[in-house]
Design a protein that fits this description.
The protein is of the alpha/beta class. It folds into 4 domains: 149 residues, Alpha-D-Glucose-1,6-Bisphosphate, subunit A, domain 3 (Alpha-D-Glucose-1,6-Bisphosphate, Chain A, domain 3); 86 residues, Alpha-D-Glucose-1,6-Bisphosphate, subunit A, domain 3 (Alpha-D-Glucose-1,6-Bisphosphate, Chain A, domain 3, 3-Layer(aba) Sandwich), CATH 3.40.120; 109 residues, Alpha-D-Glucose-1,6-Bisphosphate, subunit A, domain 3 (Alpha-D-Glucose-1,6-Bisphosphate, Chain A, domain 3, 3-Layer(aba) Sandwich); 79 residues, Alpha-D-phosphohexomutase, C-terminal domain (TATA-Binding Protein, 2-Layer Sandwich), CATH 3.30.310. It is 36% helix and 22% strand. The chain contains 14 helices and 20 strands. The strands form 4 sheets. The protein has a 6-stranded mixed β-sheet, sandwiched between helices. It has a 5-stranded mixed β-sheet with strand order 12-11-13-14-15, sandwiched between helices. A 5-stranded antiparallel β-sheet has the order 16-20-19-18-17, covered by helices on one side. α1 crosses α2, α1 packs across α4 and α8 runs parallel beside α9. The protein is globular. The two termini are 29 Å apart.
C-alpha cells in the first residue's frame, strides 16, 4: 500500500487502500519520525474519519507520544491549533476535495510546517514499510481538547467593519459548515445565504472541489437568483476557496491574487506577495502597480509556505484556490480568503466583476491535462523548439516570449502533464496553442 504516499499527503480509497490497520501504522511511523512528545489531531466529517482518527491516535500513542484530539476540524483550524498550542506536530485526517470514498492524512511538524514528498513523507514511508505491527501497549496519553471557540476568536481578529453585502456561501457539506455559520454572525451588515452547511461525508449535492466548474454551478445560479454581491465555495476541508462574482461568473483563482493583494498592500506598502508560476502575466504586473514585490514560486503548499517564510511574504496564492496568510502562521485558509475579500470590497467601491474585468488583459488557456508516454523527450523537444525564449525550470518548463507564454509541468498528484498558456490576444493564443499541441500530441 505504499502508493498511498503522495506528494503532499497520504490518501487512498477506504477501506481497500487505507483503513484502521494501515492508519495505526502511519501514526506510529509519523511519531517515530518526529520523535517528539505532543501531537495534536483533528478530523473531517467523512464517514470513515472518526475510526481512522482513533487508529492514527493509537499508533502515535503506541510510540509513546501524547495525543491532543480536537475532534471535528477544518484543516486551517488544525494548523492553527498546532501553532497556538505550540505542539510538536499535527495530523489532519481528511481527503480534502476528493469524493467520499477517499480518506487520508495531512501531516505537519511544529509551527504547522507541512511534511511533503521531499521532506518527511519519504522517511515516514520507510518506517511504515518496515513496521510489521505497532506495540500493543499504548504508553502515550490522550486528551480531548475543545479548540473551536479559541480558533473562532483568532479568525475573528481579521474581520473589519464591512459594508452591507449580500453573500452566498456553499460549504459543499464539508468542514466549512463548522466555522462559517458562527463567523457570519460577526458581519451584522451583511446578509448571508448558506448552502449545504450540514456536515455530510457522502457529499450528496456535489463533490467539494470548487476548482471544477460543475461543482459551483448551483452556487452561480443562486447568486443570480438572489441578486447577491458575490459567492464563495469551500472545498471539503475548507483550506481552499472559490469565488463567484455578482453576475454568477466564476473568477479565475490566479486573478484573486492581485485583487486581494490590494487589501494587503494598502496596509502594508511594499510588502512581498507570492504567486504560482501558472498565473497570468497580469498577476505580477498588477502587484507591481500596487507597489508590492511579486515573487514567482513553484506549485504546492509545502513549497509556497517555505518560500513565504524565506522572503517574509505577507500573502500568497495559487491556481488551485489555496491562499496563504502570514499573519495566521503562513497557513492556507478558505474562511480567511472570504473575510479578506469582504474587507477588500469594503475599501474598494467597485463590484467584483469590475475588478476582474480590469485584470482580463490577456487571453488564456486554463490548466489542461495530457497523458503522455515520454515526458523526458517531450520536454527536450519543447526546449529545443522554443530555444529563443526566456526559459525557466522552477517547476517543469516555463517558456516566456514578450507576447505569449506557457508552462508545462508534471503533476505531483496524477500521471499527467499540465499545461497553462497566455497570450496578448486570442488570435495569438490560438496560433501558438495549435503549434504547441502538435508537439505534445506526438507523445500521447
Amino acid at each position: 500500500m505504499e502508493e498511498i504516499f503522495k506528494a503532499y499527503d497520504i490518501r487512498g480509497v477506504y477501506p481497500e487502500e487505507i483503513n484502521e490497520t494501515i492508519m495505526e501504522k502511519i501514526g506510529f511511523a509519523y511519531a517515530s519520525y518526529l520523535n517528539k512528545k505532543n501531537i495534536v489531531i483533528g478530523h473531517d466529517m467523512r464517514n470513515s474519519s472518526p475510526a481512522l482518527s482513533k487508529a492514527f491516535s493509537d499508533g502515535v500513542r503506541a510510540f509513546g507520544s501524547d495525543v491532543f484530539d480536537i475532534g471535528l476540524s477544518t484543516t486551517p483550524m488544525l494548523y492553527s491549533a498546532i501553532i497556538d498550542g505550540n505542539y510538536d506536530g499535527g495530523a489532519m485526517i481528511t481527503a480534502s476535495h476528493l469524493e467520499g470514498q477517499f480518506n487520508g492524512v495531512k501531516l505537519c511538524r511544529q509551527k504547522a510546517i507541512p511534511l511533503s514528498g521531499v521532506d518527511g513523507l519519504p522517511e515516514i514511508k520507510t518506517i511504515y514499510t518496515k513496521t510489521q505491527n505497532t506495540p500493543a501497549n499504548k504508553t502515550g496519553n490522550i486528551k480531548q481538547v475543545d479548540f473551536l471557540n479559541r480558533y473562532l476568536e483568532k479568525v475573528s481578529e481579521f474581520i473589519k467593519p464591512v459594508k452591507p453585502l449580500k453573500i452566498v456561501v456553499d460549504a459543499g457539506n464539508g468542514m466549512g459548515g463548522l466555522d462559517t455559520p458562527k463567523l457570519i454572525e460577526k458581519f451584522p451588515n451583511c446578509q448571508f445565504i448558506p448552502m449545504y452547511m450540514n456536515l455530510d461525508g457522502n457529499f450528496p449535492h456535489h463533490t467539494p472541489n470548487p476548482v471544477i466548474p460543475e461543482n459551483t454551478a448551483e452556487l452561480q445560479k443562486k447568486v443570480i437568483e438572489e441578486k447577491a454581491d458575490l459567492g464563495f465555495a469551500f472545498d471539503g476541508d475548507a483550506d481552499r476557496c472559490g469565488f463567484v462574482d455578482e453576475n454568477g461568473e466564476r473568477v479565475p483563482a490566479d486573478l484573486i491574487i492581485p485583487i486581494l493583494s490590494e487589501y494587503f498592500l494598502k496596509y502594508n506598502p511594499g510588502a512581498t506577495i507570492l504567486y504560482d508560476l501558472r498565473s497570468s502575466k497580469i498577476v505580477p504586473e498588477r502587484i507591481t502597480e500596487l507597489g508590492g514585490i511579486p515573487i514567482i514560486t513553484r506549485v504546492g503548499h509545502s513549497f509556497i509556505k517555505e518560500k513565504m517564510r524565506e522572503v517574509n511574504a505577507i500573502f500568497a496564492g495559487e491556481l488551485s484556490g489555496h491562499y496563504y496568510y502570514a499573519e495566521m502562521g503562513f497557513i492556507d485558509s478558505g474562511i480567511l480568503s472570504m473575510i479578506t475579500m469582504l474587507n477588500l470590497l469594503t475599501i474598494n467601491p467597485f463590484p467584483l466583476s469590475k475588478l476582474v474585468k480590469e485584470l482580463n488583459k490577456y487571453a488564456r488557456l486554463d490548466e489542461t491535462n495530457f497523458h503522455v508516454k515520454n515526458t523526458k523527450q517531450l520536454f527536450a523537444e519543447l526546449q529545443k523548439t522554443y530555444h529563443d525564449a526566456k526559459i525557466e525550470h522552477i517547476d517543469g518548463l516555463s517558456v516566456n516570449y514578450n507576447d505569449w507564454w506557457f508552462n508545462l509541468r508534471e503533476s505531483n498528484t496524477e500521471p499527467v502533464v499540465r499545461l497553462v498558456m497566455g497570450a496578448a490576444n486570442n488570435t495569438m493564443l490560438e496560433k501558438e496553442k495549435t503549434a504547441l499541441l502538435n508537439i505534445i500530441n506526438k507523445y500521447q
